[in-house]
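In response to reviewer comment 3 from the previous cycle, which asked for concrete evidence that the modeling workflow produces usable outputs, we include below a single protein chain processed end to end. The sequence was submitted unchanged, and the resulting structure tokens are shown without manual editing.
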Amino acid sequence: MESTGIYWQPVYAVLEYSLSDEMHLLVVNARHMRNVPGKKTDMRDAEWIATLLRAGLLKSSFVPEQSIRDLRQFTRYRKALIRDITSQKNRIEKLLQSSGFRLSSFLSDIFGSSGLAIMQQLVQVGSISSEGLEGCLKGRARLKATEILSSLNGILSAPQRQLLKMQLAHLRDLQDNLQEVEDQIRGGFSKFEKAIDLLDSIPGIDLKAAYTILAEISSNMSSFPTAQHICAWAGLAPGNHQSAGKTKKRADSIRALFRPA
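The workflow returned the following structure tokens.
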């Protein structure tokens, strides 16, 4: 099968489940079996793939076992959720900045306990007084009460207050979803405790990075003959393109690989 988008995945899953003892499945990089330009139809593609397979010219792509593929969906979804949370925080700060509330000038994290309390006060009344600010500030933020108050000299209209309320509610939903995903990841990787501990022992790799690495490469290293193979699969090995005694730059080689047929 040609690894085009996600279209190969449902077919692979069915064949893997029902014919794993009778059939060896190969998912092949489409770039490795490109046909002659101008001769492409679905039927011709199928014939060309069969011809390459009979000649032994196809090399199977790495596809981990089903349990790892399931966990990989959670780790990739976690990455998407973190991106969404960052975007949502930026939207909230943009709304506040445009209305004259410059919380980030004196609070290192405007979504900490003090910042969120201030936002809830703004949702309620649209502005904030010195008395109201005193009840919102927590911990060391109390020491900067005067400076913080000087950055809160705006007013939120009723529609803006409603918008801020909706944005904060959406942020909480995203954060709750992220927590649920992280619980699923921790539970799913509990059976790979030894591999996780080994990855976590590498300097610069924390527990979350270890989960992500294991979800991408699996704990079974038999698919990679050497360390060089797994580095090349991860895109960490530079390409080499030499012709007529001249070595082309890596960027030129990459552009040549992705040049339209």
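The first strand starts at residue 242 and ends at 243. We consider this sufficient to address the reviewer's concern, and the full set will be provided in the supplementary archive.
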